[in-house]
Design brief:
The protein is α/β, with parallel strands linked by helices. The protein has a single domain, classed as Bacterial extracellular solute-binding protein, family 7 (D-Maltodextrin-Binding Protein, domain 2, 3-Layer(aba) Sandwich). It has 13 helices and ten strands. The chain has helices at 3-17, 42-57, 75-84, 94-98, 116-136, 161-165, 176-185, 194-203, 213-218, 244-247, 252-286, 296-312, 320-336; strands at 29-35, 62-67, 89-93, 139-154, 168-172, 188-192, 208-211, 227-229, 234-243, 290-292.
């Protein structure tokens, strides 16, 4: 046998032995992940359980360390630190995901969906597409998590867009989609990071914000506001991302175990958060928060202007093709289900926007 054949055989054997990462007997690896989710919240309860399952399944070859409650800053800081190698991953909302690939925000357009099931159908269809986009940018996008329906929360009643325009409304500074919406609706946005919202409500720097009921309770925002709209403006998602470089430290077997546990955990999380949001609504009302029935005129006005926003953001956040995918799958779902499926708000089904140039 020639020397070249011997070398080729050795390289082939090594490739088979290490298909995706290190050998199973290598030293234990700790993956460092950040999140804004506070300790004791429904998100952390599910994440902590998965953390234990991963340690058990891998015989502690892989352990997860969570920096919860914004210990590592805001989501912009998480993504920056992952790219620098200071963190291995993060459990983030769509804001953090958008810092890797902004087009994923097409799944959160205002007034796009009527039910959570409708959103599930569209997101499930499109998730593999986004996973490929994230992989090209050096990240593994794990299965979809959830924040839930997003409502306006305020110190005074909001029964019209005019009422909303009169408020100092929190705007997540890194959220281009919400920034575009606020501009379109002429809302008075006050840019702040999530960890600053509670202090902003306390000091009067802002007198309104937006979020899911469970987030409002977990982050204590609900104790500073008096009203919540019955109309949700959008459905918010999230996911855990891990750098591909960090995953190279793991054996193929351990990567597979983590992926399986992650999928089961994400599915459970969506179920847990939906119940938690229902429970949080009840908690807020018992604590004196009044849910204001959004007048049909405001719903109609908000929906019409939201459709213009969908069109305006083509080529800025996502491509026309990506928006078309959302509309196609949403309409596909609606064709298969009766209108009797209850919506969280009586918003009319939005129509597809006119064509616009694709994102370059």
């Amino acid at each position: 046998m020639t020397m070249s054949k011997l070398l080729l055989g050795a390289v082939t054997a090594l490739a088979v032995y290490l298909p995706f990462g290190r050998p199973a007997h290598a030293d234990p690896v700790e993956l460092r992940l950040a999140t804004l989710a506070p300790s004791g919240s429904p998100w952390m309860e599910v994440l902590n359980k998965a953390q234990g399952e991963i340690a058990t399944k891998t015989s502690s070859r892989v352990t997860l360390k969570y920096f919860e409650g914004g210990q590592q800053g805001d989501e912009r800081d998480f993504v920056r630190k992952i790219k620098l190698g200071q963190l291995d991953g993060a459990a983030v909302t769509s804001i953090g995901l958008a810092m890797i690939d902004e087009s994923i925000r097409v799944l959160e357009l205002p007034m796009m969906f009527s039910t959570a099931e409708e959103m599930d159908y569209v997101a499930d269809k499109m998730w593999p597409y986004f996973q490929k986009k994230f992989e090209k940018k050096g990240f593994k996008l794990n299965d979809r998590g959830e924040v839930g329906w997003i409502y306006f929360l305020s110190k005074s009643k909001v029964e019209s867009l005019k009422d909303l325009k009169g408020l100092k409304l929190w705007q997540w500074g890194d959220d281009q989609l919400v920034g575009a919406m606020f501009k379109k609706l002429s809302l008075n946005g006050v840019p702040l990071g999530v960890p600053e919202v509670d202090a902003g409500l306390t000091s009067g720097k802002i007198d309104a914000c937006y979020g899911s009921p469970v987030a409002a309770v977990a982050l204590q925002w609900y104790s500073k506001i008096k009203y919540m709209t019955s109309m949700p403006m959008s459905f918010a998602i999230g996911a855990t991302v891990v750098s591909l470089e960090s995953l190279k430290k793991l054996s193929a077997e351990d990567q597979k175990s983590i992926e399986e546990i992650g999928k089961a955990s994400a599915k459970k999380l969506r179920k847990v958060i939906r119940k938690a949001n229902d429970d949080a609504k009840g908690t807020m009302q018992r604590k004196g928060i009044t849910v204001i029935q959004t007048p049909p005129a405001m719903v109609s006005d908000f929906t019409t202007q939201s459709q213009d926003i969908w069109k305006d953001l083509i080529g800025k956040i996502y491509s026309k093709e990506e928006l078309d995918m959302v509309l196609k799958y949403r309409d596909e779902y609606r064709a298969k289900h009766k209108p009797a499926d209850a919506a969280p708000a009586a918003a009319p089904a939005p129509a597809a926007p006119a064509a616009a140039p694709a994102k370059k």
